[in-house]
Design a protein that fits this description.
heterodimer, A: 668 residues, mainly alpha, MetI-like fold, 28 helices, B: 321 residues, alpha/beta, D-Maltodextrin-Binding Protein, domain 2, seven-stranded mixed sheet, 9 strands, 43% helix
Chain lengths: 668, 321
């Protein structure tokens, strides 16, 4: 199998993938020409426009649905029993941790464990799961949080995040394992996951608080909905990536399927599962600001408050806190994973580790007791002078930058808007809906056959049914531009840091920041530089979506078996050939996942885009959240976003699958 | 590390240490001086909506409730929709500044009867069309809507195509701008910036870079203290001229900002209910506290203290002494 890679003149096998690609390529080209001709010929007809404030019949029926839920909340037994149980248990869990480390109780002014105790505990825990250097890193990160002046808020955020992540992993990993083992189950789950990841949070924010009341339960649930899909999806991919030959070998030696799962598949899948845990933590932290809109305590509140007076510096300060939490948690979990990956520990160090752990336990105990007895160790001393300095410095820097670069940035905005976004948007919105719809269905059929074409047909018709086709086309134009940029960055940067460990080390914090820094921290400066335009919205989407894409691609590149790399090097491949012909094709599953998640995260930013001038579906969702009579329209907009997401997700997956199948057939 | 026989012992060990630690830390908290006095007035749950004017109201009311009445004030940082919803669930006692929201009033005051309108706060909201100051200086006639078409092409940007750009902001404010532009036959297109932050940043950047900008804005707003936008006159408002949303061709009515409270809270006899009912002040009052918060970056209590000390008599009247 692998020997074919070494043959340098297999003309036949090099020709057949080319021929295969050119068949789909030819078909796509024909489809594009067909689409353009008819779109331009019939432009302006049947474009299904809808006034900003008008509602279709479907949207009005959604209004009545939400009114029904409002009225029946207190009387329906399902609502009262099930919902109350869930709410009370989550509240208990969160309150327990809150009173432990972040909030004052009824009889104490500071929490049960003061800052010194928390820092020491963190140090011990991180040491136990990884190494000493990492534990020092984690402790200093937490101390910086205190120096920023946000100790209590950081602990609040930590508590909520950990509660949500814990619950997400409990739900997501087992289900992910099942999905990895049983493809039928995965197909059943995927629409639900798409819904959870793509449905804008604003749409279910009010109903969730209606059921679960204002408080930690709602905040945790809202975060949970967004954080479970990464855990699930990535675990499923991890399981599927374990070569079937390993499982077969185990079974042939007498293991049951259950033993094979525990002793072969799970251990080999561990590295990618840890990427999943990492992504879950990132997803949870990225919800911090939205959760603040329903009274979740923590750093999100500081950001929202700073935004009221457009205090970029202060919002950056709080955002920095979130980023520090993210980086510490990311690094710790990654270090724990590589420790797991590197196999068992030698006998001697095990015994000494036992002693060390005991010592650590005692130190932790001492730290906690100290923080309870001495006030300087309980509430973080000082008034966050470092934080105030950072805040002022950022404000000054942003103003300076805006003053000097605004003409350049305005030019960039105009060039991209007039040159790229406007033509695409005009084409999509001015074409008759059935022509564009046919183009989607045609594309699906070329790359995914009849099943995919059926899904696309359903999605197109359903979007028309929501009454928001025109707005969907507006959003699609910006989404496509953002998605292209995101995937390009994913491949380029992901391959780079996948191959280069040094680059990985300093790029990673930037990626974490992009995923976790609340969007408005950099959006207000963006607004100053690029104006309230679709371009700003696209920039915001790329900043948020590219890191996920990059991280997944890097993991895929790193996962290419060393034997293949060696074989290719022995055969005389240049680095360029290595990347194009070996690493990227072998990482095809990671590429597909990176594309898929990249697009999903771009879609997740559609609503934020609506808050900075993108219009379209994003704006409608926000409007639905704020105006009672537009609630149905907002919900319909959310549905349209999900339908668009499903369609784009499936089509891109099919394209990735088909083209990599062509490339990989040369290697087998 | 957590697999295998020996490791299972280690896991149990770590968990034991952890459990003991937690048990010791949560049991027994006899530290002197870490207790808080009980409140006579009880707990008051106030909604905190995310704009500076509201924060100003909240800062002063919370300060008075805490310091003069000894209440325990719980602030809930939530949106307007969820604040009104809180009346139904009993989690919110009062909203201290409400802009219109007739639909929510109908739902919670008229139909469900869980909320009551406490009357005006004394602040008047003035909504309208505003241009950046430099334009008003250079083209004084732009302040009359009849001349807007003359300058429409100046307002073109990458989002508005061939028409002038007219900026709207946060969608929670019901606007008539699309209808107004159509009915007054103006060559503009509404750009939905989507948030107050986007709107303010656009105005600020336009003034700094001397770019043309026209949009929807309102008083009281702290931003006007930094950049004094100039109001464009539309046909005067007459009662009933905005009855049909599609045919509107007149200016916005002045908004009487009001307070809303939970019905059961108002009948509970809490002294806080009296304060909230009596709370009124002027636009100038709110602007001064808003400036302390947004521009001088004081904390809520610090900003409130300045105002309360300077208006002690007025505060006394609220408490009902």
């Amino acid at each position: 199998m692998s020997t074919t890679v070494l043959e340098k003149t297999p003309l036949k096998s090099e020709q057949s993938p080319k021929r295969k690609l050119s068949l789909t390529g030819r078909r796509s080209a024909f489809l594009s020409v067909f689409f353009l001709v008819f779109a331009i010929a019939f432009r302006g007809k049947a474009t299904l426009p809808l006034d900003r404030s008008s509602l279709t019949g479907f949207q009005e029926s959604l209004n009545s649905l939400s009114a029904w839920i409002d009225n029946n909340r207190d009387s329906n037994p399902f609502f009262t029993t099930f919902v109350n149980v869930v709410r009370n248990s989550i509240e208990w869990l969160v309150n327990f941790f809150q009173h432990g480390i972040s909030q004052s109780g009824d009889s104490r002014i500071i929490p049960q464990i003061g800052w010194l105790g928390v820092v020491v505990i963190i140090g011990c825990v991180v040491y136990a799961i990884s190494n000493f250097r990492m534990s020092l890193f984690a402790m200093s990160g937490f101390v910086v949080l205190g120096l920023l002046g946000f100790w209590q808020e950081s602990m609040d955020t930590l508590v909520l995040t950990m509660a949500a992540v814990l619950l997400s992993l409990i739900i997501g990993i087992p289900l992910g394992v099942l999905a990895g083992l049983f493809p039928k189950f995965e197909n059943f789950l995927t629409p639900a996951l798409d819904f959870a990841q793509v449905m804008p949070t604003f749409v279910y924010l009010t109903p969730v608080t209606l059921f679960f009341l204002i408080g930690p339960a709602s905040a945790t649930i809202v975060t949970l909905i967004y954080a479970v899909p990464p855990a699930l999806r990535i675990t499923a991919v991890a399981i599927k990536e374990v070569p079937w030959s390993s499982v077969e070998a185990a079974v042939s030696m007498g293991s049951t399927r259950w033993q094979a799962l525990r002793k072969v598949q799970l251990p080999q899948a561990k590295r990618t599962i840890v990427v999943g845990i990492n992504q879950t933590i990132m997803a949870a932290l990225s919800m911090v600001t939205i959760a603040a809109l329903i009274d979740a305590p923590g750093l999100g509140q500081v950001v929202v408050r700073a935004l009221e007076s457009l205090d970029v510096g202060r919002s950056f300060q709080a955002g920095l806190g979130i980023v520090i939490l993210a980086v510490v948690l990311d690094r710790s979990t990654t270090a724990a994973a590589s420790k797991v990956d590197s196999g068992n520990i030698v006998n001697e160090s095990r015994r000494s580790r036992k002693t060390i752990l005991t010592v650590l336990g005692v130190i932790a105990l001492l730290g906690i007791l100290t923080s309870r007895i001495f006030s300087w160790a309980g509430a973080f001393p000082g008034s966050g002078l470092l934080g105030a300095k950072i805040s002022t410095w950022v404000n000054n820097y942003v103003n300076w930058f805006q003053m000097h670069f605004v003409s350049i940035t305005n030019d960039i905005t105009n060039v991209v808007s007039y040159g790229l976004i406007n033509p695409m948007q005009t084409l999509l919105t001015q074409s008759p809906w059935f022509i564009t719809g046919l183009a989607f269905v045609g594309l699906s059929w070329i790359f995914g056959g009849k099943p995919l074409a059926a899904i696309s047909t359903f999605c197109v018709l359903a979007i028309v049914g929501t009454g928001l086709w025109s707005d969907t086309m507006v959003t699609l134009a910006s989404t496509l531009v953002a998605a292209i940029i995101t995937v390009a960055l994913g491949i380029l940067v992901g391959t780079w840091i996948g191959r280069n460990k040094k680059a990985d080390r300093w790029i990673r914090p930037i990626l974490d920041a992009g995923q976790v820094l609340p969007a408005f921290v950099y959006l207000v400066p963006f607004l100053g530089l690029f104006g309230a335009t679709r371009f700003t919205a696209i920039m915001a989407a790329v900043v948020y979506a590219a890191p996920a894409s990059i991280k997944l691609m890097a993991d895929g590149i790193r996962g290419v078996p060393a034997t293949i790399i060696e074989a290719a090097t022995a055969a005389g491949s240049s680095p360029w050939q290595m990347i194009i012909k070996v690493q990227i094709p072998s990482a095809r599953r990671a590429l597909a996942l990176a594309t898929n998640q990249g697009i999903i995260y771009v879609l997740a930013m559609i609503v934020v885009g609506g808050l900075v001038g993108a219009g379209g579906l994003g704006y409608l969702v926000v409007a639905g959240f704020s105006q009672e009579n537009l609630k149905g329209k907002g919900l319909a907009a959310g549905l349209a976003i999900v339908l668009l997401g499903i369609m784009l997700d499936r089509i891109t997956q099919a394209i990735a699958h088909k083209s990599s199948k062509g490339l990989s057939s040369a290697a087998h | 590390m957590f697999t295998g026989h020996r490791a299972r012992k280690r896991t149990a060990y770590v968990l034991l240490v952890g459990a003991v630690t937690f048990a010791l830390s949560t049991g027994g908290s006899a530290q002197a001086g870490y207790t808080r006095a009980a409140a006579k007035c009880g707990t008051v749950n106030l909604a905190d909506n995310a704009w500076v004017g509201y924060e100003a109201n909240l800062a002063v009311v919370a300060y008075v409730l805490k310091n003069n009445l000894g209440c325990k004030v719980v602030v809930k940082n939530i949106s307007e929709e969820i604040s009104w919803q809180g009346f139904q669930s009993g989690q919110v006692d009062a909203i201290l500044e409400n802009w219109g929201h007739e639909d929510l009033a109908k739902k919670y005051i008229t139909t469900q009867k869980v909320a009551v309108d406490l009357g005006p706060t004394g602040n008047k909201g003035i909504i309208g069309w505003y241009v950046v100051p430099w334009m008003a200086k250079k083209y004084p006639d732009i302040l009359n809507y009849k001349n807007l078409n003359k300058y429409a092409s100046m307002f073109k940007n990458s989002e508005s195509g061939s028409m002038g750009a007219f900026l709207d902001g946060d969608p929670s404010y019901v606007t008539n701008d699309e209808a107004l532009i159509k009915n007054l036959k103006l060559n503009f297109k509404v750009i939905y910036t989507g948030s107050e932050a986007a709107l303010i940043t656009s105005f600020r950047a336009a003034e700094a870079q001397k770019k043309p900008m026209i949009g929807y804005f309102y008083e009281p707003q702290w931003f006007l203290a930094q950049v004094p936008l100039k109001h464009v006159t539309l046909p005067a408002y007459t009662p009933g001229c905005d009855a049909d949303a599609k045919k509107v061709a007149c200016d916005y009515p002045p908004y009487v900002l009001n307070k809303v409270a939970r019905a059961k809270f108002m009948t509970s006899g809490s002294p806080a209910a009296t304060v909230i009912k009596n709370f009124t002040w002027t636009n100038e009052d709110q602007n001064s506290v808003a400036k302390s918060l947004a521009v001088d970056k004081l904390s809520d209590d610090a900003a409130a203290k300045i105002w309360v000390t300077a208006h002690a008599a007025q505060v006394k009247a609220w408490i009902g002494k």
